[in-house]
Write the structure tokens for this entry.
Amino acid sequence: MKETVLEMKDIHKSFGSVEVLKGVDLTLHKGEVLGLVGENGAGKSTLIKILCGIYKATSGEIALNGKIVEIPNAEEAQKLGISTIYQELSVIPDLNAVQNIFLNREMTGRNSLIAKLKYKEMKEIADNILHNQLDMQMNTDALLRHVPLAQKQMVEIARTVYANAQLIIMDEPTASLQAAERDKLFQVIRALKEKGHSIIFISHHLDELMEICDTITVLQDGQKVDEGPVSEFSIERIISNMVGKERKNKYPKRETELKEVLMQADHISDGKVFKDVSFQLRRGEILGIAGVEGCGKNEVIRTIFGERPLASGTIKVNGKNYYNNISKAIGAGIAFLPAERKTDGLFLKQDLAWNTSIAALDKISRYRTLKKSTENKITDQYIKQLRIKCSGSSQKISSLSGGNQQKVMLSRWLMTEADILLLEEPTRGIDVKAKTEVYEIVGQCVRNEKAVIVVSSEEEEVLGICDQILVMKNGSVKAVLDAKNTTTEEIKHYSV
Amino acid sequence: MKNSKVLDRVMNVDGIGIIFVYLAVFISLSIACPNFLKFSNIMVGIRQAVYTAIVGFAMTFVISLGGIDLSVGSTVGASGMILAAMILGGYNIYMAIIVVIILGALVGLINGILVTKLRMAYFIATLGTMSVLRGLIYVYTKGIPLYGLKYPEIQFFGQGYIGPIPVPIIITLLLLGISCYLFYKTKFGRYTVSIGSNEEAAKLVGINVDKIKILVFVLSGIFCAIAGIILASRSEAAIPTAGNAYEMDAIAATVIGGTSMSGGKGNMLGTALGAILMATIKNGLSLLNVNTFWHQVVIGLFILLAVALDGFATKKAEEE
């Protein structure tokens, strides 16, 4: 019987009158990887924040290695050996790997703020951890600003290794990783396990959880609804526990008639990342662009939208020549949903209504004056239509879950009555239930004679909702596949 | 139970804190000083608030945009100087006023272009224009005030009355109305705040960010020109130091009024209240015979108090 490293008993947490955790138990053994799953809003982040000292539980107790502990703040959590690696990494880009690993733990001659830094010794240790223990070859003197995301993540892991954290929490660590980098991460996790570190692994990628975790714990609506060793689990079981009912198909079935060509791209190239991309997009069609990160698929739709310049090739919309700049794009009925909601899409200081109407203010204007009543009415319509879970149109957008935020982004563009929707990773970072709802919304759009281009790194998603699939690799289109006659393996085959 | 619910709603009105502070100050000063509540004294207080308020409205736009305009004081001074120079030079008074306003807009245009096309930081660009303008004022006036603005048409703006209300206050109220309308009820206001909230997202919803930035600075220039005209009219002269440090008072009024320094959240009415609060404090301190140098200290303390309370409220909201 492995020794217990962490035991959380009957954890309750309320924010005002809203109870977010309703008595959750969690047990983690030494050298174990525990997969924590649940929809957005199920309470995963809250539970983790309690462990990291960011929140204090309303009631319940936490025991580390058999001893009951208090975790009043983040510093105390660190001292107890609890370390977290967030999805949006927290490395300092203007420092290099060595400096990041030793941040707040610098080696100096004497214990003083103005003592000389022992850089050589620190670099030696940093190199040892990265090159030898984690098998990551990288230049530790390079500023992290210039280093790829996967390497930044390794530096964060190296930091927790140096801190000798006994409990490492990884929040969506594979979200932006390519396949090879993800395999590397899993290798590292296995190595950490062997050295006695214990890991809580949070992810929406159920297949990955099955691959790397030893046990799975499922949260739903603030309660633990399932747990057990991974050998007893299947993806279906996890999903059914998360959403509460058996799901046969994750993707809604649809048969739509394809009508006239709405957009035609001929040999477009941006001169930097992609070249010679051509396609035809018909009304009622969902075109998918698949490929690994960096293949150029994101740049294609961003260039079409006008966020980046076109170097050569032509784009026709509704038969007319189209010049790609953002305001012309919106005028031509094109919409764009960026992958990074928080940095590129949402106005976090504002409320739902503001975030919904901002691209179509003309629709709530009368004699050049904005009418709040119209804005509220339209926003309420979208809240109802898209089933956005919120307390109303004046709720701050920052307090909505990822899935609901994405629905607000969709309503923003639906309000512009755009005919062509360009979706960049539309279901990234949102839970299974919200994903299905997003697919249904997209399906409804094409039934209403719109056309959609979906750029996605999830082959299964692309296969599930698209009609035609362009597979890109290193900037060019390697294959054009018919979704009805292909498989995820074939898509993967052309991507790598 | 019902009482606490009403209390909750009242406490959540944006900017409610400042109204309480104002009432507290008002009441204490009324008790401490017998002359405070005299109408003539109240008028003095409000008159002083006029310049801070007008420049403050513009500053609220600029700060909500995510920027800052340090050149406002110099623009006020330069406007008064050009007005005086033209009138004393024999030009038609109303034409002089129009020219001054256009030149104010031009200063704003220059600030806007520096910040958009030349990609300069707001602080640096407006610090530059501030210094250049103030320098030009001294070059032209050689440090000597331009006296003699005694024509009734021009005196009207700073010293006239419409009914019982002084003209500067009417102008301020008009500008407050225009500012509130633009800020809360037009696309221009929405886009301004959106850019301050998330510039990248603003671009991606089709907002012409450069255009809005330039327009905001042009608005600032125009408001400063108007304040400069009123000031010159009141002084019946153009003094080289006119407008000095107005940016500080404007920023103070904006911040005390509840606008966020990081942009993306503005309170136009709060700025007006902030200006009145600051003027009331200064007025009260004068009546209490407090040395004028201490006024600065007290204002500074109020700024710290306002920002601290705002930070505290934000922290509390985040914890919930």
